[in-house]
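Hey, can you fold this?
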Amino acid sequence: MKIKKFAKKPNDLNDRVGKKLIVCYPNDSLDDNLKILHKARENLEKINEVIVSPRDAKTFIVEKGNFFRIESIKGPQVGDLNLFQLNNLEEKFYSGKTRAFYGTHLSVGDKMFSCFPYLRSMATITWDTLDWYGYDNDGGGVHDVIGTRCDPYTSKLLTDNDYHYCCHSNLTRALVKEKNLNINEAEKIVHDVLNVFMCTGFTDDTKQYFMKSSPVRPGDYLEFFAETDLLGVLSTCPGGDCGSEHSSDEAKCYPLKVSIWNVNKKYLKDIKLSTISSYNKNHGLE
């Protein structure tokens, strides 16, 4: 935290601070299929759904060209989402690069990019019933790619407790039970998440990550379009709406629903799907 200042201010301080900001990764060149996707979503047909119990996680599969929704069904609840390419679990969601492209919180039109060396959009967000929230007076917003996921290691570090229903453990457990991975394989591929419905930001003074009660209510949902075959894993956070704490047996928690939706491919004929990076992987060695 940059609040403890030990170094002496330089004489040329005014020449060093307050320079013009530059957006690091302008996203104007990224394909925008939103007009096509909004037309297509008017013709969706639900083909499957999965209910994720409180303080647990479940896997689900979405075929390329289908849509999926994460929905609040019984009460305010936050979910932690991992995405993998179905046939190659090494290709997984890259929250850091997605954040660099779109900012700290995602909504309609934003894409979820995969890790190196693939770096393609795995899914595009097509609808968000909470997009009215924007950013509040504390700078808080919904659906963040800031937080990593609550995990048992941080819980042990800060409280000296062994807690097994953190989102990291929930996601690991689902991969072990439902995809027949061993626990070491599963834990190594669990990755930083999209915090669905979570309301978060950075404090003004210390710039620390904060959370507050989510504005999500039953019937709210976040909708995605799958740009490749996906394996999703969703954890219902043990913090419930994350208005008090996470990694807790005390917080009121609710299930979440994942629904899968098909659409006639005629509505997608003009869409530009993302592709794996064409970088030659030379890295300057030849």
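Oh, and this one too while you're at it.
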Amino acid sequence: MSNPALASDEPNEDQLNKAIDELRGVLSEEGGQGSAAAAHAAMPSVGGNNIVMSIPVEVQIVLGSTEMPVSELMGLQKGSTVALNRRVGEPVDIVVNGRKIAKGEITVLEHDPSRFGVKLTEIVAAKPSR
């Protein structure tokens, strides 16, 4: 049974559906169908599943970034440390095909403690289409 106090901190179904629609919008061509819902409805169906659902997308979890001169970059060696622009505990960005769609926190997988995962904490608001 889930704890209602914890459930309020997690994305609800509407937020997740909105994020999925945003992903569909990222996949549709700019100036094409107009809205993500129209693009989704226009996709041909194969065996009850939309073709778009099988298209691979690049998902990146961005811990942080930094800028450095080439001379400093060339001086990096095994064991060098690169300081990032984020502090420990700050949310990471979830980026799909180059577009930030959410924020999250790094977590250790419960069923496999040797692996990391990301728990979604915030869905980034979709920017209106032009």
